[in-house]
Amino acid sequence: MSYERDPEQTPAILSPQYASPNDKSIPNTPTTMSPPSARDSVVARFQIHSAQIPKAWISPICGAGAGFASGIVTCPLDVIKTKLQAQGGFATRSSKNPYAKSSHIYKGVIGTGRVIWREDGIRGMYRGLGPMLLGYLPTWAVYLTVYENTREFWYDTCGSWWIARCYSSLTAGACSTILTNPIWVIKTRLMSQSSRSASDGMRAPWHYTSTLDAAKKMYHTEGIQSFYSGLTPALLGLTHVAVQFPLYEYFKMRFTGYGMGEHPAEDSGANWVGISAATFLSKICASTATYPHEVLRTRLQTQQRRGLSSSDGLQVKARYTGILHMSRIILAEEGWRAFYAGIGTNLIRAVPAAMTTMLTYEWLQKTIRHSQEVGAELAKTSEEYRS
After folding, report:
1. Among 3.40.50.2300, 1.50.40.10, 3.40.50.2000, 3.40.50.300, what is the CATH number of 62-90+101-381?
2. 336 near 295, Cβ under 8 Å?
3. I want to staple 146 with a disulfide (CB 3.0 to 4.6 A). Which of 80, 94, 172, 177 is the partner?
């Protein structure tokens, strides 16, 4: 989808050690030449090996790298957002007052951050980082790979640029969501664990010490279906990526003249400013339009299906039985604002996360492709010298 441009001309790179001994411009020296610097040697080897990477592997590698960088940068804000979304789901109800008003101990981004820091320190701010990274790597690797490889198929099928991008986003989102939902459930459970100051009626009914501990306890007490809690609203949330990525491609084309994963021959700051602006605008639009599904998904992921008992030993039923039932309870107990609980934190988290993801993805795409071009030249030059 990029405009026509001359392909990048990569000059042949010839190391001085390959110069002909008969070259008059080079003084006579002993036959033992000094080797190239260690850095040049390592870079050259990397470039030569990168030329052997299959084209189909580039998108998964770039997607995984982008997910890793995004997880590291945004984990503390994700913890705060999850706390705000989940806390209303831990309130206890009685038969006399099934819609009891819930009291919140987490209030606002700064207030929630202070509570977490006071109770759990830096470990609390990065709780759930392990499953987050385990989730982001395959999520973005799968998503960006499927998205890039289905755009032309859907365009040939429907003939519309916008519809093809929307279908590609939905297809890629469905594949990555179904594959990684268990990891995100564990991440959400770890992040939503209650602080010591939480009252009994607002305390999460579990405590996990690690990702593996969470997986074992969830499986033994709630069964395999607990790992797919919140899958329905997560799939409904595919409307988010159906908005974000077509808008991202459109804005990037408008700002830079290049499509997703494409770059000018001569690198420039304007290109990266255009990518940043396209990411910012597309993420703001998508997050604002589709946020309520994230609250519904978090509430479903943070409720136990079975294995929870009250103080008198009686079995407690699941608080929410489905999306419609959950929506009615949230609206009756907490009002419509609860559907946008944590949206401020989400925007503060989501925009840097999206910018980190896309800038890393685009940079890796450019770096790998450039290394492949240079590596091919180096390999060709080396073969000519040996012959």
Report:
1. 1.50.40.10
2. no
3. 172
Give the number of residues written for the chain.
387
Strand partners, 194: none
pLDDT tens digits along 252-306:
999 999 999 888 888 888 999 999 999 999 999 999 888 888 888 788 777 765 5
The answer on pLDDT for 372 being more than 80 is yes
Three-state SS sequence of the chain: CCCCCCCCCCCCCCCHHHCCCCCCCCCCCCCCCCCCCHHHHHHHHHHHHHCCCCHHHHHHHHHHHHHHHHHHHHHHHHHHHHHHHHHHHHCCCCCCCCCCCCCCCCCCHHHHHHHHHHHHHHHHHCCCHHHHHHHHHHHHHHHHHHHHHHHHHHHHHHCCHHHHHHHHHHHHHHHHHHHHHHHHHHHHHHHCCCCCCCCHHHCCCCCCCCHHHHHHHHHHHHCHHHHHCCHHHHHHCHHHHHHHHHHHHHHHHHHHCCCCCCCCCCCCHHHHHHHHHHHHHHHHHHHHHHCHHHHHHHHHHCCCCCCCECCCCCECCCCCCCHHHHHHHHHHHHCHHHHHCCHHHHHHHHHHHHHHHHHHHHHHHHHHHHHHHHHHHHHHHHHHHHC
- Please, what sign has the CA dihedral across residues 269, 275, 276, 278? positive
Q: Give strand pairing partners of 315.
A: 309
**Taking the model in full, what pTM does it have?**
0.67
